[in-house]
Structures are given as C-alpha cells and as structure tokens.
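Board notes (copied after class):
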Amino acid sequence: MNDVSFASLLTPEGRALLDEVRGTEPAQELAVATRLRRDHPADLVSAALGQARLRQRAAAKFGAEDAERMYFTPNGVEQSTRTTVATHRARRLRSLGVRSVADLCSGIGGDAIALARAGIRVLAVDRDPLTVAVARANAEALGLADLIEVREADVTEVGTEAYDAVFVDPARRGGRGRIFDPEAYSPPLSWAIATALKAPLAALKIAPGIPHEAVPAEAEAEWISDAGDVKEAVLWFGTEPGLVRATLLPGPRELRGRGLPDPAVREVGRYLYEPDGAVIRAHLVAEVAEEVDGGLVDETIAYITADELRPTSYAAAYEITDRLPFNVKKLKALLRERGVGVLTVKKRGSAVEPEELRKKALPKQHGPHSATVFLTRVAGAPTMLLGHPAQRSWSACMASRGRREGDDRT
C-alpha cells in the first residue's frame, strides 16, 4: 500500500468499499474482487481488501470494535503496542500527573490513542509519510483528533520542552527482521536515553530481552506480560531509579524487586511453581520463592518447588505426582498406567521439542485424563516431573494463610 492507494480509502467510495468487504474470508477474496472490479477501480478494490485483512489481524491487538474503524499498514499491525499494554502505560502516566506527552516514533498511533483516551494531550511524531497519514486517520476515526496532533518529522529534531512527559518507541525491526542491538534501533537507544534524561518524566519502550546491565542507573525497569505472554520492557525516568518491577496484565498485578539473593536449591516438593515470564525477565524469581516459601529445583532453572500450596499472583502452581529421569519409554508407560490422553509439555533447560515428545510419549489408546510434564533439570540431571494444575483455589489458600497468621499472633 502506498500513499495514493491509502488516500483513496478515505474517499466516500473507499469508505463504502471498506464497509462492503468487511469480514471477507481469504477463500472469498478472488470472487469478491472480481465482482467489485466491475464497478470500482482495481487498485481501490485491492486496497480495500488488503485493509480488510489487516483489520482482521489487528483485532487481536486492538479489539474488533476499534480495529473495524481504524486503518493499518502491515508494519503497523506488527509493531503496534497491544491496547491492554498501552492502556496500562497511559493510566500510569495519568496517575503521575501527566497531561501532555510527546510520543516519538508513534507509528500508526496505538499508544497515542491510549494516551488520549486517558485524557492526555499527545504530539505523535513519525517520519514516514504513509504512517503519519494512517495515524492521523486513526485519530479522526476514533474521535480523538482534538487531543492528538500528528506530525511528520524526524524525532531527533523535535523539541519536547512543552510536554510533561516523553514516550519513545524506537523501531526494532529492519529489512531483515528483528533488531537485537539497541544501538541499531531507529533511533538508537542511546539517543532515546539522552532524550529521556532531559525530560521531567519519560518512558522508553524496549525489547524484553534487554540485558539488565544495559539498564541505566537513572531508570526504573518494568517488564510487562499480558495473559502470560511477555510483551515488552519499559525504562521509566523520573520515577524510582533502580527499581525493577514485573507487571502482569490483566490486573494489573505488580511485583516490585527487593534485591533478594537467589533462592536456594532444594529437593522437589509436592508443588511446582512456574513464574510468569515477566517475573523471570525482571529477575524476580526470588521474590516469588519467598512468597511461597520455596526453593529452586536447579540453580539455573526458574522453576520453584515447595511442600505447601500458597497463594501467589505471579506464578502458576502445579501438584507434582511423579519424578523420573528423562526416559521416553518410562514416561509412556506411566501415562498409559494413568490413562492420560491429553498431555501438556512444558520445558525449561531442555533441548527436547514438546510436540515431538508428545507424539512419542502418548499411548495409542488415549485415556480420559490429562497431565502436564515438565522437562527440566533437577540438581543438574535431566528430569521429567509429572503433575497437574493445583486444584485448590487461591481464596482457600488466602483463608488458610490468614488462619496461620492468626495462629502466629496468638
């Protein structure tokens, strides 16, 4: 899609076509295109069908209602912040007293939309003409044009002194795919940090794989997951320098680092806790281990084991029924004995592919039960831990903990 074909979608004819092709399935596209080209320019029909495909893809990030009204580019869908994450960040900025934000490298406007909906005035800046046109159309389509000013410019040449905060989302993809070197971001991370340090308050969106040693001492570092998937990391300036936090959405549930030492390794107990990915990325496994009174199954593996089921919002709990050395035949025999027909395979510290193990280990005569197997290392040895999600409700755990704390007080 180019500037001309996108502009044609904003005409009355283009908008009518977008309404007509809404929900077109891939298998129907050829027939729909053939029919529509009898009355409309071929380029416009192609642009409308392409936009319909992008809107379908974007629904997962933006929600179906917004996605059906918005406009997208392929890169825009790929690189935009998920609405739940953008909303979380916008609410935090609002709670910090921010009323205006310079959104640098704004893309198609996903973060600008969330900021505006939080009541924040936004300057959205991008240097790509098509991206700017799409962002401007999105602000208008969602009724937010009064709060979002979209500007085509090089972000390194834009003054931000008039704004309460700066948000920077450097491009982390190039012609060859994902970029891992922060200095190869566009603009480089060093420029973004220097810009952030000049602002009263700033947030820099970065890849969640950033090494902790690359986090500036002046920054607070936040790792964010949504429904269990790690989405991004954010460097905050002007908040709490040196703080490390994990934020789990929906919620939000927030775990703050306390500088705890690594948990001790201990024997596998009755329960295994699998920390959320944001917790692991933030190096806050020790905080979860303390919360559940557990230890590690191996010094290099982020699985926590404990003898009791205790409440935590930051890890999934499993009851372990069997522990055996890595051996596919023994696992298959055990699954047959237990009547397991549905097997979930999780791994950490193992090179085995889950789908391959599932094919080899499940008996041909599938049983009615389900199980989870963890492929990992225990005290350095390749091990399989078999179990299932812990059934005891967290409310029951909380009540139990309350009783224990009450007993302690007496």
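Comment from the instructor: The first helix runs from residue 3 to 9. Residues 393-410 have pLDDT under 50 and may be disordered.
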